[in-house]
Design brief:
single chain, about 375 residues, mainly beta, Tachylectin-2, Chain A, 2 domains, five-stranded antiparallel β-sheet, disordered N terminus, Glyco_hydro_43
Length: about 375
């Protein structure tokens, strides 16, 4: 220790502290060793790495994120809507990011090199990644703005980074008789695969629906019947089970109007996966205007929403990855809305999810804990 202090006598306190942290890390490996590495935003607690972060965690764009963890490597993979990032590389056909900690993300490729041919025209939106029977199933939307007949497809890969092989169309709006059939989300329980889907609209058949898939998750179950879960003012819905309740999370409002976007996340819950889902005031979300607010825009970020499924870290903390828009830099040079990847933790109070202050965090915070 004297040698380290002597060597550090002529450098500033920050460097001295970092050397002291290094010395602790090298010579004390017990669970009692604690160190804060200033400037690197890394906390070391008994061998576990706890990272500090500040939103956004990835820029310029990862809209409508979906995330899965590779059980073999522990790495996370995030996928997003097709977008042109304004960097000269054109439109990425559902980009793929990789991370070890949900904070530091690296672009590693795209789901497709060319669009599937089962539909003429449209973009590849709002993917949903799942680990099914040892493979990676990615459900996706194929749609234009105002498309009269969008649809949902499926691609499968042996590894989360791909290559993904398209399986074709699962169904279209005309097939299923639900307008604006986009935003798929798989929910699995016991031996049943449920697909939740749907988006905004005012028609009588509009809204968020659920339908069972076959055991392989590749097509609709035999004689499957759809059930309406929520009214047509919702989109980007997903289910999360906790302590005997099924929680319905979804987004409302405009997603893609730059700094004027009004996207926000709301929630309801039920004792059954097929509902009925009620908000905290006891109102059914099959009626428009209902739902308990979880996350909304702030002075710094507009339009937070369309989040991934909840990820629980190794300390039992729940985390939500979603997209949000910097109000001071809302678009890339091509004019596309700059929907950056955001991260915040969820706490549960009286059986309901909460995010601190109900808005995207802007200050530096302690991130997820994943044991190496």
């Amino acid at each position: 220790m004297k040698r380290i202090l002597s060597f550090a006598a002529n450098i500033n306190l920050r460097k001295l502290h970092c050397l002291y942290c290094l010395w602790l890390t090298l010579f004390f490996t017990s669970a009692q060793s604690i160190c804060l590495a200033m400037g690197s935003s890394v906390l070391l607690f008994g061998g576990d790495t706890v990272r500090q972060y500040q939103n956004p965690v990835f820029e310029p764009i990862l809209a409508d994120p979906t995330v899965v963890r590779d059980a073999r490597t522990g790495l996370f993979y995030a996928y997003g809507t097709q977008d042109d990032w304004g960097d000269g590389h054109g439109s990425r056909l559902m980009p793929i990011l990789q991370s070890a900690d949900l904070i530091h993300w690296e672009y590693v490729g795209n789901v497709f090199n060319k669009k599937p041919d089962w539909k003429k025209g449209g973009g590849l939106w709002a993917p949903d990644i799942n680990f099914v029977d040892g493979q990676y199933y990615l459900y996706y939307s194929f749609s234009l703005w105002g498309d009269p007949n969008p649809g949902i497809g499926l691609a499968i890969a042996a590894k989360p980074e791909g290559p993904f092989i398209d399986q074709g169309k699962l169904f279209s709006s005309e097939d299923i008789n639900v307008p604006n059939s986009i935003d798929p989300s798989l929910y699995q329980e016991d031996d049943t695969n449920y697909l939740i889907w749907g988006s905004f609209g005012n028609g009588p058949n509009q809204g968020i629906h659920v339908i069972p898939l076959d055991k392989e998750g590749k097509r609709l179950a035999n004689k499957a019947k759809k059930v309406k879960l929520a009214a047509g003012d919702w989109e980007a819905a997903m289910l999360h089970k906790r302590n005997g309740y099924y929680y319905f999370f979804g987004s409302k409002g405009s997603c893609c109007e730059g700094a004027n976007s009004q996207y926000r996340v709301l929630v309801a819950r039920s004792k059954k996966p097929l509902g009925p889902y009620l908000d905290q005031a006891g109102k059914a979300i099959t009626e428009r205007g209902n739902g308990t607010l979880l996350l909304k825009g702030s002075n710094s970020f507009a339009g937070p929403g369309h989040h991934a499924k909840i990820i629980t870290d190794d300390e039992g903390t729940d985390w939500l990855l979603y997209h949000g828009i910097r109000k001071d830099n809302p678009k890339v040079r091509t004019g596309a809305t700059r929907r950056a990847l955001m991260l915040d933790n969820i706490v549960w109070e009286s059986g309901w999810p909460k995010i601190k202050d109900g808005v995207p965090s802007t200050e530096e915070r302690t991130g997820p804990i994943f044991k190496n």
